[in-house]
Write a structure and sequence with these properties.
This protein has helices spanning 9-16, 25-50, 60-69, 75-88, 97-120, 124-144. The protein has 146 residues and is an all-alpha fold.
């Protein structure tokens, strides 16, 4: 990270007009514009090095939820707070156990169907599918009952 070459606008103007002791107002005005261009270019470059920025896109339904939940905060401040809260939180995100229970029930139904299918015709592929579904079902039981 390199420091900015000039400590002030006046130092820049002194360097810019060292060969011209009596510049016109237009020359001074253009030199000031050039200084601020150089300064902000340096500032933005240093900021990009120090701080990574991301662009986020949201669907209309997500935007509606953000508008509803942000309260009196700006959208940016609300998103910063939401990300910071997630990063600093030690607890797991809330899980909808009803959805897990429903998926677990559907897995049990699939297992029963596979077992009936195996009773009618035995197949290695069917047995492997049944084993995989049963492993998935055990994972759901562990999620529901930690």
């Amino acid at each position: 990270m390199e420091p900015f070459r000039f400590s002030s606008l006046h130092e820049y103007l002194d360097c810019a007009f060292k060969d011209n002791p009596n510049p016109s107002w237009d020359e001074i005005k253009n030199a000031k514009k050039e200084y601020w261009k150089i300064y902000y270019k340096h500032y933005r470059r240093e900021k990009r090095i120090k701080r990574k920025e991301f662009s986020l896109g949201f669907y209309p339904k997500q935007l509606q939820l953000i508008q509803q939940k942000r309260g009196d905060k700006s959208v940016s401040q609300f998103l910063y707070d939401a990300v910071n809260r997630q990063l600093t939180s030690q607890e797991a995100p809330p899980v909808d156990t009803e959805v897990f229970r429903e998926v677990h029930q559907q897995l049990r139904t699939l297992i029963n169907l596979m077992e009936e299918s195996l009773d009618n015709e035995a197949s290695d592929a069917h047995e492997e599918i049944l084993e995989r579904i049963e492993l998935l079902e055990e994972s759901f039981v562990q999620l529901l009952n930690p």
